[in-house]
Design brief:
The protein is 67% helix and 0% strand. The chain contains five helices and no strands.
């Protein structure tokens, strides 16, 4: 009996090709990277929740103009503009409190900051 060598075609040894993607799947993959940037651009980490800020802003506005109305984007823009201001004021207040030797910020510290910044 003769020994036969079994030949397997080289094509079958290679890794099979992945299934072909449909055009809509290609577009989804292509836009996926841009979508991540879009989502990251709209995510912001605000210190004060939107509902609390909106309630305070509407309360202040009602003292000035009782029938004032706001676009939701306007309130969001006000919050984005005001948060850095608040953060800076609190930092200044903590600096003053630490100079005095206290460990907690109280209303007096913020009052001093407001008085110093007003001058």
């Amino acid at each position: 009996m003769t020994d036969r060598v079994h030949c397997i075609p080289a094509k079958s040894l290679a890794d099979p090709k992945p299934p072909r993607a449909r055009p809509s799947e290609k577009a989804a993959k292509r836009d996926g990277d841009g979508r991540d940037l879009h989502d990251a651009d709209h995510k912001c980490f605000l210190l004060v929740s939107k509902s609390v800020f909106e309630r305070v802003a509407r309360g202040i506005a009602s003292d000035i103009a009782p029938d004032a109305r706001f676009d939701p984007k306007a309130i969001e823009s006000m919050q984005h503009a005001m948060e850095p201001f608040f953060v800076e004021r609190f930092k200044q207040g903590y600096r003053i409190v630490n100079r005095v030797g206290r460990t907690a910020l109280q209303i007096e510290g913020l009052t001093i900051v407001n008085d110093l910044c007003a001058k």
